[in-house]
UniProtKB/TrEMBL annotation:
This is 7-carboxy-7-deazaguanine synthase. Substrate binds at residues 22-24, 37, 80. Its EC number is 4.3.99.3. It comes from the Bacteria.
């Protein structure tokens, strides 16, 4: 590989899609947002709804990504996947977006280290529940690096997931660290049932539904 090719590869990321939509979840729900969906993921969660991002995609340079997102009149950017941190150039992308004045959030599985990321980035970490099949991938040291701007999300498929999430909430004092989100897996748990559990136990968490799915279903790029 030539020196020029090495330099060119150093600022590139494989992207499945860049699109403009409403933020469908987390504390920024409802805000017009540009989404940058990176390709690839080392996890295979049972409830995954973005398996189309496991492979394929196109290579973009960092300047090309910045040029694309600048087409939209919003300051809110979400970098997601797949698992965006599986690509080594993701942290550089996050920093450059912050440097350009965007409010940047990262949707990550929590299986990869988030402690060295730019502190301006809002981390939305999906702590994997037992029904995901990927609970053993959780990197619990990540919890020490969360602060009040960050969020931990539990995707809950059944009562066992809920009880485990409550245990994590209390063991790690998560509500004292950051915002905590509980979200149901529609196929296996009625949203009202999860809401009733939260209210019965008087949990200091935010119940959430995926707004984009209520509006557009599972249509990619929405």
């Amino acid at each position: 590989m030539s020196d020029n090719a090495v330099i060119a590869a150093a600022d590139r990321l494989r992207i499945t899609e860049i699109f403009y939509s409403l933020q469908g979840e987390a504390c920024q729900v409802g805000l017009p947002t540009v989404f940058i969906r990176l390709t690839g993921c080392p996890l295979r969660c049972g409830y995954c709804d973005t398996s189309y991002a496991f492979s394929g995609g196109q290579w973009y340079s960092l300047p090309d990504i910045l040029a694309e997102v600048s087409r939209y009149h919003t300051r809110h950017i979400t970098v997601t996947g797949g698992e965006p941190l599986a690509q080594k150039n993701c942290p550089a992308l996050l920093t450059q977006l912050c440097d350009h004045g965007y409010s940047v959030s990262l949707e990550t599985s929590g299986a990869l280290d988030v402690c060295q990321l730019d502190p301006r980035v809002i981390k939305v970490m999906d702590l994997k529940t037992p029904s995901s099949g990927e609970q053993d991938k959780n990197l619990y040291t990540n919890l020490d690096c969360l602060n009040s701007q960050d969020q931990v999300k539990f995707v809950i498929g059944d009562r066992a997931d809920y009880d485990w999430a409550v245990e994590m909430l209390r063991t790690y004092n998560l509500a004292g660290r950051c915002e905590v989100l509980f979200s149901p897996v529609f196929e296996t748990l009625k949203p009202a049932e999860l809401a009733d559990w939260i209210l019965h136990d008087q949990l200091p968490v935010r119940f959430q539904l995926q707004l984009h799915k209520l509006l557009w279903g599972d249509e990619p790029g929405r």
